[in-house]
Structures are given as structure tokens and as C-alpha cells.
Design goal:
Strand order of the largest sheet: 10-11-12-19-14-15
Strand content: 35-45%
Order of helices and strands: EEEEEEEEHEEEEEEEEEEHEEEEEEEE
Mean pLDDT: 93
Low-confidence stretches: none
Number of domains: 3
Helix content: under 10%
Oligomer: single chain
CATH class of the largest domain: Mainly Beta
Number of strands: 26
Shape: globular
């Protein structure tokens, strides 16, 4: 079996940076491959504004915001068109304020084409658009408020699931396969700093995801009767994506005889999210497109609308096969603290033909 089946990650994931103009604004990707995104998650880096999340299942002009639990916003000035290699914005202040700088992380699913399923017993009606090669599926469903299963279409076991109620002001829910034991009895919230919390089967049904379905309990955040939900579902793909955990040691480059953790992913990362599970702390986003990524000192916070921040604490270094924690800090390297992460590749460590990529 080949080390990876994805030699060019830009066919499935890309990052764009741009400057707003408060008018129609076409954002074109610059990766090796053309990418028509199905999921766009963006943030202004220079002014305090909410994150914006759009996808081709819900359609244009339907915005969710990761830093709060607000209902889905339907307007006329947000993401206007999903394009063949990027997207087009209208004049909205959140997405396209004049003179402000932005970053947009983009994933490819199935071009907006859904496989639908009907309500059956306690199992909800909905649909999914799945990219089995890249391990990413966008799932929509209508809650039943009963323990149930939902099809995801990936043909692989999901490692991370992010769910939002579209119809009510409820927190974002996050399942990660390494957020505790058993992970299906725990939950985290993307829009808060809270540590992982035990909920028995209330959120994820107390049952591990399978290659075909994930389970839901009766928590209102993820499964209230007749409310509409969206789920972003991720499976691991060798050489392209990784969803893991690590334990901090409190070390930093400033300590002469100590070394921060190195996290092996099997690829040079383009994008990393880190969250402390053992205590209250921010979610952190690093990427390789914003300035100062080597080491990555600029960070954004999924749980906050605050501007991009930088500094010597909470810094990581992208390498050819993973990332290195370079400085101590509670958000990513408290001694004995536990952390989860999700990461996507700039390039695999070894190509499908067995050729090592250039070291960073």
C-alpha cells in the first residue's frame, strides 16, 4: 500500500489570504491544484470580527460563527458564490471589510452533491456529501431527540466531528477520538474555552463511530426534535490529515536543557488546531499562509472574535513530518497538560511513489 494516495494536498485543502474591499471581491486560490471549496471557514486577522463558516450543503449567504452559538444567519452580503477555484464575496463587514486582512481555510467535499436518507425510527432524515479520498464529509440532518445513528458516507471511522444547531442559539459540539476514555462519553464546545466534560451518552450516544455512521444522544446542542443541524465529519488520511493528542512538558527553547514536545503527523502541516482538554483554555489555529509561520507565532482563536495575536509563548514550528512545540504556555504546553489537535498537510512526508519530500 502506498504511503499516501494524496501527493498534492492542495487538491482537497487550501488556505487563502486576502484584503477586504467592501465590494464584490473574488478570492482565487493559489495552490498547485484548482480547488472548488465546499466548506469555507474564515476570519479577519486585523480587527475583532466573528469567524465565518459557509458550506455548499447549506448554500451561499448562510453563515455560522464558531466563536458563538448564534443561529444560522441568512443575509445578502456574505459569501456570494462558491467558485471553481475559490469563492466570491459581497460587501459584508464580517467577511470583506474595506482594507482589513483575512484568512480563509477551505476543504473540498463532493461539490455540493448530497446522498440523502429518510427518517427511520429514531434515526433522522438528512444527507451527506462525502469525499472519501480526503476523509471529509458534510452531513445535514433534522433532530429526533432520541439516541440514533447518522450516516456520514466516508467509508472510514471518523476521528473528529463538529456539530452546530442551525435553528437555535446553542453551543458548537466537538467529538475527538482522543479527548478522553471513552471519548464517546465526553464532549467539548468549539465556541468556549471549557475543558473536556463527561456527559455519558448524552452527546455521542455512548457508541463509537463506525465506517458508515456516527451516533447521537439526546443533547439539545446536537439532536433536538425537528431542529436542523450541520456536521463536519473528518476521517484520518495518511500523509494528508491527522487527529491526535499529546502531553505537555512545560519546556521551551528558552530552557537550555529541555525540549518541547514533537508531534509526528507524517506530513508537513499547512494548518493545525490545538485545544487543551485537561483545563480551561483557548482553541488555537496556526497555518502556513499568514506571516511568521516558521515558527508559527501568529494565532487565531475559534472560540473568540479577537484579532490575530502573536508572541513568544504558544509558538509551534512546522517540520517536514509534523510540528514542534517551541515555547511553554498553558494553551499548548503546560507540564502534564493533555491536548488534542487536528492537522492538514502542505505536503506528505513521503509521496505515493516512496519519494521523501524536502525537509523544512
Amino acid at each position: 500500500m502506498a504511503y499516501t494516495n494524496i501527493d498534492d494536498p492542495s487538491a482537497y485543502f487550501q488556505i487563502a489570504t486576502y484584503t477586504g474591499n467592501a465590494n464584490f471581491n473574488t478570492i482565487t486560490n493559489d495552490g498547485n491544484s484548482v480547488l472548488a471549496p465546499d466548506f469555507v471557514w474564515g476570519k479577519c486577522t486585523t480587527t475583532s470580527k466573528s469567524h465565518f463558516l459557509y458550506d455548499t450543503t447549506r448554500g451561499t449567504e448562510k453563515r455560522l460563527e464558531s466563536d458563538n452559538g448564534s443561529v444560522e444567519d441568512t443575509g445578502t452580503n456574505g459569501l456570494y458564490i462558491f467558485q471553481s477555484d475559490g469563492f466570491k464575496l459581497a460587501s459584508g463587514n464580517t467577511e470583506n471589510d474595506n482594507g482589513e486582512t483575512y484568512v480563509a481555510w477551505q476543504w473540498k467535499a463532493n461539490g455540493g452533491t448530497r446522498t440523502t436518507f429518510s427518517e427511520s425510527g429514531n434515526n433522522p432524515a438528512g444527507g451527506y456529501q462525502a469525499n472519501t479520498t480526503a476523509g471529509f464529509s458534510i452531513v445535514d440532518y433534522t433532530g429526533t431527540q432520541a439516541t440514533c445513528t447518522v450516516a456520514h458516507g466516508l467509508g472510514a471511522v471518523p476521528k473528529m466531528i463538529i456539530v452546530k444547531d442551525r435553528d437555535a442559539s446553542r453551543s458548537w459540539s466537538v467529538y475527538h477520538h482522543q479527548m478522553g476514555s471513552p471519548a464517546v462519553e465526553k464532549n467539548m464546545h468549539l465556541n468556549t474555552t471549557a475543558a473536556v466534560t463527561d456527559y455519558n451518552a448524552e452527546y455521542w450516544g455512548g457508541t463509537n463511530p463506525t465506517t458508515s455512521v456516527f451516533s447521537l444522544g439526546n443533547a439539545h446542542d446536537i439532536n433536538y426534535n425537528n431542529r436542523k443541524y450541520i456536521a463536519y465529519v473528518f476521517a484520518e488520511v495518511q500523509g494528508y490529515s491527522k487527529f491526535g493528542s499529546y502531553v505537555g512538558n512545560g519546556a521551551s527553547d528558552a530552557s537550555p536543557n529541555t525540549d518541547g514536545p514533537f508531534i509526528y503527523t507524517g506530513f508537513s502541516p499547512a494548518f493545525v488546531i490545538i485545544k487543551k482538554t485537561s483545563a480551561v483554555d483557548d482553541w488555537l489555529i496556526f497555518d502556513n499562509k499568514r506571516a511568521g509561520y516558521d515558527p508559527a507565532v501568529y494565532r487565531l482563536y475559534p472560540n473568540s472574535n479577537t484579532t490575530e495575536t502573536s508572541g513568544t509563548n504558544n509558538t509551534i514550528q512546522f517540520t517536514s513530518n509534523g510540528f514542534k512545540i517551541r515555547f511553554h504556555g498553558g494553551s499548548m504546553n503546560t507540564s502534564g497538560g493533555t491536548y488534542i489537535y487536528m492537522a492538514f498537510a502542505e505536503q506528505p512526508f513521503v509521496t505515493s511513489t516512496g519519494t521523501p519530500t524536502t525537509a523544512r
